Structures are given as C-alpha cells and as structure tokens.
Amino acid sequence: MRKRDKGMRGTLVTMERVENQISEEFRSLRSNIKFASFNKNIKTIVITSPSSGDGKTMTAANLAMVFSQEGKKVLLVDADLRKPSIHYMYGLVNDCGLCNFLIGQKDINAIIRSVYPNIDVITSGLTPPNPPELLGSVQMSDFISEVREQYDVVVFDTPPVLAVTDATLIANQSDGCLLVVRVKKNDVKDVIKVKEQLHFAGANLLGAVINGKKQVKNEYYYKK
Ligand SMILES: Nc1ncnc2c1ncn2[C@@H]1O[C@H](COP(=O)(O)OP(=O)(O)OP(=O)(O)O)[C@@H](O)[C@H]1O
Ligand SMILES: [Mg+2]
C-alpha cells in the first residue's frame, strides 16, 4: 500500500469509528442537508471547495457512508478527473470509471463497483485531456439522470473551484452543493469568490462544511 493509499483509507472515519465525535458531526451534516432542502428531495450532491487539500474527498466519502448507514442506497462518484483519489480510499484500481462512460467506451453498469452494503462507487477512470468538455456534455447529463433513477443519494467528489470550472459544471446539474471550507487555510475572500461562482453557475448551495475547527468539549452532552 502506498503512502497516499494509507492516508486516504484512514479518513473513512464514519465506517471505522461509528460512535466517535467526527462520525456524529457527519450525521449532523446529513440531517442539516435534509433541513436545508425542506420538502425538495435532494438526491445529487456536489462536494467542492476553494482549493486543493481542503477536505472534499474526505467529506464526500464520509457523507456517503453516513447516508448508507441510515439505509439509503448511495453512489459515490469521483468526478475529480484531474486528481482522483476515491479509489485510494477503497483500495480500488482506477482502470475504468466515469470518464470511460463519458467517452462512450463503457456502459454505466460496467463502471459501478460495490464497496459496502448500500454503497457503490464510480472511480474517475482514464485521465482525459479535456475534463470540462466531458463534464458539460450531454453524456454527463444522461449519466446524472440515470444514477438519479438508480440511487437514493449520489455524492460527487470534484476538483477545487478556484482552480478549474469542473465542479461548477456538475453543480449546475445537481440538486445541491456543499462547500468545504478548511479553517486556517482558506481565505475569506476566496470563500466569497467561490460562493459567487457557484451562484453564477446556478448551483443550489446548501451550505458550508467547516473542516478543521477545533473541537470544543460540550459539558452538556447527553450520555446514554
Ligand atoms: N479535519 C482534518 N484533520 C486532519 N486531516 C484532514 C482533515 N481533513 C482532511 N484531512 C486530510 O487532508 C488531506 C486532504 O484532504 P482531501 O484529500 O479530502 O482534500 P481534497 O479537498 O479532496 O484535496 P484535493 O483538491 O487535492 O483533491 C488528506 O490527507 C486528508 O486525510
Ligand atoms: Mg480530493
């Protein structure tokens, strides 16, 4: 296992330590998504952030896990065609995935992999020279319509908004978008800029995930 493989696997905390504080935060995030959506059914959710290393992949994978833990049929899609990493998290070989479908090389069922009960994964597949063209294509719209039919929740991991347009192209076609903001790393101006870009792209911004905030012990927690 390479160093990066190890690192990414360790971030799937909601599977390994169901009862810990971080898992509880992800369950809160799951509830907040439901509250944020009122009576609109949010099925397709894009996870993005201003820059690289903010915690998008970690958030996407753990969110997928907590949705599956409440019995939802979940699909996690690695739509970061430039720097894919979902396959590291599940120890998969990224030899076939979303990109292979988008260029018409594979059927949708041939790229879906079952990793846990209730969670399927689609890795990014081959590396294309033109991600925005593929992600803004009719094939991508068809892909989103198809997976909406097959799953209760579809989570898209994407590249950073300030670097490339890829995330906004998917957010435009999805039910909701979550902006991951890493404390002490992301500049407020950059966060505002990303919010504006997502808004301009027609994304339904559900809210922000504040990643890396110091944990404050709550004296008033309720223990079973
Ligand atoms: N709150 C946190 N505390 C400690 N480590 C974290 C935290 N959030 C993320 N990390 C680690 O930071 C690294 C980057 O996280 P991740 O890969 O999820 O970011 P990303 O936004 O997807 O980056 P990229 O844009 O490069 O794909 C990973 O090694 C991850 O395990
Ligand atoms: Mg990532």
From TrEMBL:
InterPro entries: AAA_dom, Bact_polysacc_biosynth/exp, P-loop_NTPase, Wzc-like_C. Residues 43-184 form the AAA domain. GO terms for cellular component: plasma membrane. It comes from the Bacteria. Pfam families: AAA_31. The keyword Transferase applies. One of its GO terms (molecular function) is non-membrane spanning protein tyrosine kinase activity. Its EC number is 2.7.10.2. It catalyses: L-tyrosyl-[protein] + ATP = O-phospho-L-tyrosyl-[protein] + ADP + H(+). Keywords: ATP-binding, Kinase, Nucleotide-binding, Transferase, Tyrosine-protein kinase. The keyword DNA damage does not apply. PANTHER family: FERRIC ENTEROBACTIN TRANSPORT PROTEIN FEPE, TYROSINE-PROTEIN KINASE. Belongs to the CpsD/CapB family. This is non-specific protein-tyrosine kinase.
